[in-house]
Amino acid sequence: xxxxxxxxxxxxxxxxxxxxxxxxxxxxxxxxxxxxxxxxxxxxxxxxxxxxxxxxxxxxxxxxxxxxxxxxxxxxxxxxxxxxxxxxxxxxxxxxxxxxxxxxxxxxxxxxxxxxxxxxxxxxxxxxxxxxxxxxxxxxxxxxxxxxxxxxxxxxxxxxxxxxxxxxxxxxxxxxxxxxxxxxxxxxxxxxxxxxxxxxxxxxxxxxxxxxxxxxxxxxxxxxxxxxxxxxxxxxxxxxxxxxxxxxxxxxxxxxxxxxxxxxxxxxxxxxxxxxxxxxxxxxxxxxxxxxxxxxxxxxxxxxxxxxxxxxxxxxxxxxxxxxxxxxxxxxxxxxxxxxxxxxxxxxxxxxxxxxxxxxxxxxxxxxxxxxxxxxxxxxxxxxxxxxxxxxxxxxxxxxxxxxxxxxxxxxxxxxxxxxxxxxxxxxxxxxxxxxxxxxxxxxxxxxxxxxxxxxxxxxxxxxxxxxxxxxxxxxxxxxxxxxxxxxxxxxxxxxxxxxxxxxxxxxxxxxxxxxxxxxxxxxxxxxxxxxxxxxxxxxxxxxxxxxxxxxxxxxxxxxxxxxxxxxxxxx
Length: 572
Fold this sequence. Notes:
It is a single chain. This protein is mainly β and 572 residues long. It has one domain (2-570): Beta Barrel (Porin). The chain has eight helices and 28 strands.
């Protein structure tokens, strides 16, 4: 019996060594991951991955070993062997060096940039590292260093906004850790970045990681997990490739981790005296994501994800406290009358999010469609869900299509995505929190001062249109984007005032026109973006702190901004 057990362990260890490699970091130069996702639209991807649970794991024997660019240095050259010992099955590799830079000329702009922060001026991020494996054990050390000039810009100020804005603005920032500016000095930080240590057996992996996660089908936004914020420390149990069963393939991940505050001085507190100090406590996050590809419907991927956030001192003990993700999704199941709203879930002082999503790939049409629908509040019961499914909802919906050109492997990609986070009309009849804010978890759904989910932010809406020429990793394109900032805050402000009709045209809306590109030069992959942004009603500002008599014709306070990004990756 012991001999058979030993043989099984050795076999699993061999499978792990022969198949397992490092992860492909979320947002790797933005276009690198996407180059492989496009292979699936072309019918050339045989991994079966949903591309909805990331980071992706690179291993021999799947399409990550292909070279869609037909160049010498492709992604399977993402590491360089430094040491190998066949006897112990130990190997050490050097990971590629990645250097990202960006600049904003007028005010902070941008999203999905990981450990970078919202800042004006020059900012840079540098990462490199080592990957080692010994049998089924793998260690990935990829720290990140960020420096930001963090120069001064026009922030929210009650003196330049209507006095009625003060209270709604203060209440908003009392429920989220999302500083406009990270202090007044240059910002500098070294973090674990995309580092992890894992034990891998077949398609399963258990370990401790600081990597960014992306859950869901969205390209520009996703509701629960993205690389909009810095990666956070977490234990993880996940699949490394689709697990095949008689009814189809599954992917999934369960996490338990720690979220930290920004630690940024509250500049707004000096201007808005109603802003309060937040609890000095870290937050515990637990989450789950599962995707399913039905055997009978090829290229259809279904999934859901769920997260809970609670201050560590409020977490409690027992399995239910550490893994509330397996609890009921109906408030009536927790009702014990112990909280003001009459349910135990509120008394537990937890903030929960849930979403369901789908992605359908159409290789014949070289296209895909996807959507994600989420809620940040439990329904009381099934009847409540059926009567008001839109309560506390948010959604992401999008499509992409590749149009072949006359030259081989060249395509025009057309993509569009719509993200809606603004609270729906149920706000007028029942209490509801903005996405990523919470009245009990005062730091909200953030890590180190940035939202974990959609970069559009609380109360934000975004529409993106992207048209580009693509060939492998090479890409040149145009991006049009409309970003409505925090309409929830705007309506709380406008409808709290006595002159609400004077504010109907004062939404803060960014209109962006951008040129994007990615190119390969031998061992290098370069990407860039240059966006011209017109911020209408920037910071909801207007002259003299109040609007004029004519709400269609007033002294508009708009702003122009230039956002530029350049990234460089060296392939071994």
